[in-house]
Amino acid sequence: MKLSVASAMIDAALAEATRLKVTVCITVVDAAAWPVAFARMDGAPLGVIDVSGKKAKTAVLFQMDTAAFAKIAHPDGVAYSLENTNGGLTSFGGGVLLKAADGAVAGAVGVSGATSAEDIDIARAAARVLSA
Amino acid sequence: MKLSVASAMIDAALAEATRLKVTVCITVVDAAAWPVAFARMDGAPLGVIDVSGKKAKTAVLFQMDTAAFAKIAHPDGVAYSLENTNGGLTSFGGGVLLKAADGAVAGAVGVSGATSAEDIDIARAAARVLSA
Amino acid sequence: MKLSVASAMIDAALAEATRLKVTVCITVVDAAAWPVAFARMDGAPLGVIDVSGKKAKTAVLFQMDTAAFAKIAHPDGVAYSLENTNGGLTSFGGGVLLKAADGAVAGAVGVSGATSAEDIDIARAAARVLSA
Amino acid sequence: MKLSVASAMIDAALAEATRLKVTVCITVVDAAAWPVAFARMDGAPLGVIDVSGKKAKTAVLFQMDTAAFAKIAHPDGVAYSLENTNGGLTSFGGGVLLKAADGAVAGAVGVSGATSAEDIDIARAAARVLSA
Question: Which PANTHER family does the UniProt record give (chains A, B, C, D) (predicted)?
Fold first, then answer.
């Protein structure tokens, strides 16, 4: 995950958040869950800094969007308590897995600060940069 | 738990995982929950490294397989939140308790990366080394 | 610390690092030590991600550049072990305190990945954005 | 870092440790500091399990052997307190960086349990597997 790509994803996410009139944090991690770029919009609650990072981390560590992860880690899911591993993970939408053209995991983007549906929408706007 | 035994269990688990065409992580811990041997198969998601360790730890700390632990630590179980003790435990199958011929706890093996049923199958393949 | 300012500081740091032909991580935090923006240049060692953040945190928490903090927190300094507080701080150059025109603390920038002298130079290039 | 290579490195380390009549722990991590394989020899002190992991992590995160890292992180070194970053690092020998034929970082091996000189010797025996 090059910084130029991660920065373009951050910019795309900021544009989409501005369009939706919400304030969020955005974290982009590489395929091994290490941070590449991060931005906090003016006015975003301080608590969502960490949430955006955990969403990105969760998506890449288990190679699925966090909305899908939420189903298996739910008390009625097949892997209840999975969210307690790896230093704490997040079980709701806003973390989107990034794949390269050949299908390999390229990293993940995590967005937090708005509703879960909006966070997902913003994360997908960022992800489209990779496939453009 | 001797390293020679733990290594033989890892090899048995790898063989069973290969037979099932899945990629997993395997952790073997001793009767005091300290790691003896660990292996990550090529292609296993990074998140399951920690899960395999937590499954082994959970099994040996409460002297039961994690599939049994899941029933008591579930929100509807008799000891809900037990999974939050000891630095975080796992409440789904794939951690198998190991006992010596005389019934004493010998350690545990934790497997993660496939379905819970497959993880359990692989962990049992490893456990059979001890009773062979 | 507005995101627009923090982003401009990141850009200035990236330009200076490119001029020096080094690869670094840059973290900008606000006056309460919370991250605003972060970037990792391609090829920077993974270990310096955390170092850049700790440098920025150290500078803002004690309201001095980390090169100054290093003198008091050194084993021969007046406050040896101060570096072990606040979850771990850094005692070498590369964290630069940011002040507003009226002298109030505005945040800090932390740079890591090159020599300490280069890290300081890059952090100062970022800091000049604030006073421009 | 493939498991087959990491396992061969563990075996080489065990053979060298046996030759030296010492008992150690060996951890092999990939280029992003994630564990691939681990082994604890019978009789190794429990405390060195974590030390072997931290040595491998330190080497790969800063792209140098831990004996070299020790010089810069020493109280009189250029980056005192660097050992307090990244969740705690180790500033003495026994972590050896692994490079591929093209010079790219391939991972690291960490050995702990004997004297530092012996730990280094054992780690180098493991590293030779990669270049063989």
Answer: PROTEIN GLCG, SLR1406 PROTEIN
